[in-house]
Write a structure and sequence with these properties.
The protein is α/β, with parallel strands linked by helices. Helices cover 28% and strands 26% of the residues. The strands form two sheets. A nine-stranded mixed sheet has the order 3-4-2-1-5-6-7-11-8, with helices on both faces. α1 crosses α5.
Length: 257
């Protein structure tokens, strides 16, 4: 099996080393193509207005001056064009990618791009309660990651879907199991702007999300991680709201005369 791995935290991120360990537990044919710098929140952005630069850092290890999406495209369509990967793994992100996060996450986007290119793809993230100063329990994905990937590959999932995995913020022996979950949603009131003043008297701003409430719905990704469960969420790449199709068509489409 040939595995392509990427992330959005950058080529020097500790979580990428963890993901490489997970991948090498599965095969010795592992290729790393990751952004030069941190691309957290880059979502599924694609570099079109300037050329991509890529550096070879070692055997099967490359850094791209671009987004996670760029990295996956460079890996699949350029570096490995003669023998494409069998699996794309993206992560392990420092911090969870739950609920609304999937819309912004470069980690999830890396897996989405792999899926769009016809390759089974999994995004992996490690939850951390104190994002600014805490150290993620990297042992948790290292212990549980490879076995979970094997089970997912054995089970399979439909083309056009991507798997979003989030590990809880606890030690490996405190993990209570795996839960297949739905994507949760946060209260939009939690989104906040922190306005500050620099030393020259000019305003600047940070976008932030306030701490979540204590009771996310059971069965959601937020609930699973809070319950010390590994959350596995299949995400559909078809954004169409099929339930609304007929209602809109009845109102907007002209009737045959």
């Amino acid at each position: 099996m040939r595995i392509l791995i990427t992330n959005d935290d950058g080529i020097e991120a500790a979580g990428l080393d963890v993901l490489e360990k997970i991948a090498t537990d599965l095969t010795d044919d592992v290729w790393v193509v990751a952004p030069e710098t941190d691309n957290s929140g880059a979502s599924h952005s694609l570099t079109l207005a300037e050329p991509l630069r890529m550096r070879e850092l070692g055997k099967r290890r490359y850094a791209v001056k671009g987004t996670p999406t760029d990295c996956v495209i460079m890996g699949v369509r350029y570096l490995l064009k003669d023998q494409p990967p069998d699996l794309v793994l993206s992560g392990v992100n420092r911090g969870q990618n739950l609920a609304d996060d999937v819309n912004y996450s470069g980690t999830v986007a890396g897996a989405i791009e792999g899926s769009l290119l016809g390759i089974p793809s999994i995004a992996m993230s490690q939850a951390i309660s104190n994002y600014d100063h805490g150290v993620p329990p990297w042992d948790t994905p290292m212990v549980h990651g490879a076995g979970l990937v094997r089970k997912l590959l054995d089970a399979g999932w439909p083309t056009g879907s991507v798997i979003n995995v989030n590990f809880p913020d606890c030690s490996p022996n405190q993990v209570k199991g795996v839960a297949v979950t739905v994507q949760g949603f946060r209260d939009t009131a939690l989104l906040d702007i922190d306005d500050r003043m620099d030393t020259r008297g000019k305003a600047y701003y940070w976008i932030g999300i306030a701490k979540r409430g204590p009771n996310p719905p059971k069965g959601s990704d937020l609930w699973a991680v809070r319950s010390n469960l590994i959350s596995v969420t299949p995400l559909c790449l078809d954004f169409t709201d099929h339930g609304a199709l007929s209602d809109l068509a009845s109102v907007l489409e002209e009737k045959d005369k």
